[in-house]
Design goal:
The chain is mainly alpha-helical and 219 residues long. The chain has nine helices and four strands. Helix 1 packs parallel to helix 3, helix 4 packs antiparallel against helix 6 and helix 7 crosses helix 8. The chain starts with a strand and ends in a 16-residue tail after the last helix.
Length: 219
Amino acid sequence: MKLYTFWRSNAAYRVRVALNIKGIPFEKVSIDLLKGEQFAAGFRDVNPARAVPALDLDDGKPALFESMAILEYLEETHPQPALLPGDARGRARVRALAQIVVADGHPLQVPRVRKMLVEGFKFDEAQLAHWQTHWYQESLISLEEHLARDAETGRFCHGDSVTMADICLAGWIIGAQGQKVDLAPYPTVMRIAKACFAMDEFAREHMSKQPGAPGAPPA
């Protein structure tokens, strides 16, 4: 099984963590998004969307793509340990918390959006930083208010077991820290993130530890 990934990719981080939690061995294939390797013909054959992650199951069929679709596939094919609750309402809540990150916040931060802001709309560094910080804050406010309010919140986003929502939250916090977002206003979010990062399945996939990351050890 090959995972096409990139050290800085929040979406790829989600899949790496899920594979670890499920105990599924995989090979990492780095696609440097900053160098434009996603546009090379070889990778476009893997994922015509020109994005990571993509998961090649070595079954002779096209690779799976889009992080949440991959997580759902892993949940269906490797149901234990579960990343979704057993009840329909709980599953809806976990998916909704995850979507605050993957649908509301993350799409506004990806390289192609930043590229358009700089090249198309002539954002300078300060304007781009303001854009990124603003959208991190908006999503974190939503997460904090839901998590602090809801009785279903436990050690993690939903109860005391890791779910897809925690995987999304953890990656989002790494990104926010990289952007130097003030995280003090989000104590519930940060409590949960700390619980996630205490687990090896999360910690060893931290973006700073991946091949190609600044200061990372050689692969």
